[in-house]
Amino acid sequence: MILSMTGFASIQRELTGGTLSIELRSVNHRFLDLTLRTPEEIRPFEGGIRERVSAKLARGKVECRVNWNARAGGEAALQLNTELLQQLLAAAAVAKKIAPLASELQLGELLRWPGVLSAQVAAPESLGTACLEVLDEALLDFSASRGREGEKLKAHLLERVAGMQTIVNEVTPLIPQLAASYEARMKARFLDALGTMDDDRVRQEIVIFAQKIDIDEELSRLNAHFSEIRRILEKGGSVGKRLDFLMQELNREANTLGSKSVSAETSRASIELKVLIEQMREQIQNIE
C-alpha cells in the first residue's frame, strides 16, 4: 500500500479515573519529525509513546496530542510538593530581609504556585498501559487514513504516467521520418552553400550531426522509467524517496529530448512531459 504523509486520527476512551484521548495528525516532511504534547500525568510514558509511533511511521511531520481529564471523585488525589514549598518559603525569607516593607506571601498564593499542588493518579501504571493501548488503536486508524490518501495519490500518479506514455508512443513512430526530413534539409543547405555533396568530410559531418539529434535512447529510457514507477507503486511501502529520484531522471530525459529537438513535435512532447513530471513531483512530496 502507498501511504500518504497526510493523515489524522482521534481516539477517546473512558477509564475509571477519567477520560483519555489521543489525537494524531501529520503533514509531509523529509524525515520523521515527531512532536508530543502531553499533560503532566502522561509525561512518564513519553518514551514508550515515541517508540510506538517511530516503529509505525518512517516520514512526516507528526503531532501526537494526549489529553487526560481526571473525573471528579475518581482515582486522582491532590499531592503537595513539600520540597518546592520549602524552597519558596526560604526564598520569601531572604526577600523579606532585602525588602522588609514588602507584603508577605499568603498561603493561597503559595498553593497556587505552579508545581506546589498536583493531581496524582492513584495507579499510574494502569494509566500508562491504557495510554499505549489507546495509542495502538489510534495508530491503526491513522495508518488507514494515510492509506486511503495514498491510494488517491497512486491513482493520480498512474494517470500521469499513462499520459506520458501516450506522448512517447505518439512521438516514437515519427522519429525516423523527422530525422530523415532534417537530414534532407541539411543536405540541401550544403548544396546551396557548396554546390556539391562529393566532399567526404561534408557527408561525415551530416552523419555525425544526425547521431547527435537521435532521441531513440532517451525515449527508451523514458519507457524504462515508466515501467519502474508502475512497479514501485504496485509494490507499495515507503517509496517516496525512490519516486522522487525517478522524477529527477524523467526530468533529465525530457530536457535532453528538448535540447535535441529538430521539430515542433518533439519540442511540444518535451514541454508536455515536463508539465506532467512537475505535477507528479508535487504529489510525491506527500508520499512516505
How would you sum up this structure, described in words?
This protein is α+β, with helices and mostly antiparallel strands. It has three domains: 7-73 and 127-144, Ribosomal Protein S5, domain 2 (2-Layer Sandwich), CATH 3.30.230; 79-118; 147-285, no CATH class. The protein is built from nine helices and six strands. It has helices at residues 46-56, 82-98, 107-111, 124-171, 175-194, 200-212, 216-235, 240-259, 264-284, and strands spanning 7-14, 18-27, 32-37, 60-70, 76-80, 117-121. The strands form two sheets. A four-stranded mixed sheet has the order 1-2-4-3, with helices on one face. Strands 5-6 form a two-stranded antiparallel sheet. Helix 1 (46-56) links the parallel strand 3 (32-37) and strand 4 (60-70). Helix 4 packs antiparallel against helix 7, helix 5 (175-194) runs antiparallel to helix 6 (200-212) and helix 8 (240-259) runs antiparallel to helix 9. The protein is elongated. The protein starts with 6 loop residues before the first strand and ends with a helix. The model has no long low-confidence stretch (mean pLDDT 85). Keywords: Endonuclease, Hydrolase, Nuclease. GO terms for molecular function: hydrolase activity; RNA endonuclease activity. Residues 2-154 form the Endoribonuclease YicC-like N-terminal domain. Residues 175-288 form the Endoribonuclease YicC-like C-terminal domain. Belongs to the YicC/YloC family.
